[in-house]
Amino acid sequence: MEKQIAKDLLKIGAVFFRPDEPFIWASGIKSPVYCDNRLTLSDLHVRNNVENGLAALIKKHYPDCEVLMGTSTAGIAHAAITAHILGLPMGYVRSGTKDHGRENQIEGKLQKGQKVVVIEDLISTGGSVIKVVEILREAGAEVLGIASIFTYQMQKGLDNLDAANVKNISLTDFDTVAKTAAEEGYIEEKNIRQLIAFRDNPSDESWIEK
Question: What is the pLDDT of residue 101?
Answer without folding.
Answer: 46
